[in-house]
Structures are given as structure tokens and as C-alpha cells.
Write a structure and sequence with these properties.
229 residues; Arc Repressor Mutant, subunit A; Four Helix Bundle (Hemerythrin (Met), subunit A); two-stranded antiparallel sheet; 9 helices; 2 strands; disordered C terminus
């Protein structure tokens, strides 16, 4: 892996996971030393993060980790709905039905993945990732895939702003099951509608968790886990 790719991947993960909080300066000298690279690959990585909106200009020429306000969340989900409903439509028209029928069956049994023994819901989120991966293949649209790739980093940041809610996770699993079933049945309209319903519920869950927070969400006010998407 090229040095710039490694640095980009590490910084992106640190931003998405809130280990690098909004407003953190990404000074070239300090970050290059911390990550063990020269400034050239670091600059390439920072340029990619800026292009994705994960870093923005700060004081002088230094980039800082971008913030995430309630207005940003609403706009993020507006874009997410436009892209993901179209992805669902395309998948319903182009997918291998057996792939999504199997995913629907797995989501039907998802309650077993939400047990206290797995508080971080690793198995559940792996199942969600499997659905995303199947959609990526089925929609067969490289341009849409590229747009979704950028969007998903911001979505992952947003998830961590809400508290874990077992009831919401169970409802999200049912919503994912309906999406997968609609795609398996080749019903593009229902697949898009089910995706929109799911996204509205996801945004409402995040906003409800932040009801008492200030509009500028510099960092989560209490420790949070990734929530249902």
C-alpha cells in the first residue's frame, strides 16, 4: 500500500470514529511525525480528506477536522435519501434475487445478533455491511458507487452521535429485511420507498438522541456507540 493511501485510511478512520474530534488541527509537521511519513504523502492524504469534506481550512494554511451540526445532519440525510433510494431501485432491476432473499432471511433472524453478549453489535453491523456490499454490486453503477463511498464516511460519523437503542436496532433490522425482500422480488418502487422510510427513522433516532445538545455538535456529550442505520 502506498504511503499516501495508508495515511489517508488511518486519518479517515480516526475522523469517522471521533478519535480525531472536530476542530482538531491536522498540522503537516505533527501529523507526518506521528504517522511516520514524509510531508508529501501526508499532503496527498489531506487533499483527499478535504475533497470529501472531512477536513476544512483552519487558521493559516492548516486544515482541521470538519464539524457536524444538526443542519449538516439534515442535509446529509437528504443526499443519502436521493442516492440510496436510487441504488435500491437499480438493485431491484439488476440484482440476483437469491442474494437478497438470503439477506432478507438473515435480517429476519437478526434478533439473535442483538444479544447483550455482543454490546458493540459487531455481528449485526457486519450484516448491514453485507447488505451494502450486495447493493454496491447489484446496482452496477460506478458513478453512484463513488458518490456513496464518500457519503458513507459522513454517515458513519453521524451514527456515533446517537446512543445505542436496542428497540431501534430491532426496527432497523425489520426495515432492512423489507428492503432486501423488495429487491429480491424485483419491486423497484417498494425498494425505494422502504429505503426512504428507513432513512427517515434513522435520522429521527439520531436527532432524538441529540435533543438536548447544542446545535454545534463539536463532540458527543456522552460516550456513544454506533447506532442503527
Amino acid at each position: 500500500m502506498r504511503a499516501s493511501e495508508r495515511v489517508y485510511t488511518e486519518l479517515r478512520e480516526e475522523i469517522v470514529s471521533w478519535r480525531l474530534e472536530p476542530g482538531t488541527e491536522l498540522a503537516e509537521v505533527e501529523q507526518a511525525e506521528r504517522l511516520g511519513v514524509s510531508r508529501t504523502p501526508l499532503r496527498e492524504a489531506l487533499g483527499r480528506l478535504a475533497a470529501e469534506g472531512l477536513a476544512v481550512p483552519g487558521r493559516g494554511r492548516t486544515l482541521v477536522v470538519s464539524g457536524l451540526a444538526v443542519t449538516d445532519l439534515r442535509q446529509l440525510f437528504e443526499l443519502r435519501e436521493a442516492l440510496e433510494t436510487q441504488a435500491a431501485r437499480l438493485a431491484a432491476r439488476r440484482a440476483d434475487p437469491a442474494v437478497f432473499a438470503a439477506l432478507a432471511q438473515r435480517f429476519g433472524a437478526a434478533s439473535a445478533l442483538l444479544e447483550p453478549a455482543d454490546p458493540d453489535r459487531v455481528a449485526y453491523y457486519r450484516l448491514v455491511e453485507d447488505l451494502d456490499a450486495a447493493l454496491d454490486v447489484a446496482m452496477a453503477s460506478p458513478y453512484l458507487l463513488r458518490a456513496l463511498g464518500i457519503l458513507r464516511a459522513h454517515v458513519a460519523r453521524a451514527r456515533r452521535l446517537a446512543h445505542d437503542n436496542p428497540d431501534r436496532l430491532a426496527r432497523a433490522a425489520a426495515e432492512h429485511r423489507l428492503i432486501a425482500e423488495a429487491i429480491a422480488d424485483g419491486d423497484a418502487t417498494l425498494a425505494a420507498q422502504a429505503t426512504a422510510v428507513h432513512l427517515h427513522a434513522s435520522l429521527a433516532n439520531i436527532l432524538a438522541s441529540l435533543e438536548t445538545a447544542e446545535n454545534d455538535l463539536g463532540t458527543p456529550s456522552t460516550p456513544v456507540r454506533e447506532v442503527a442505520r
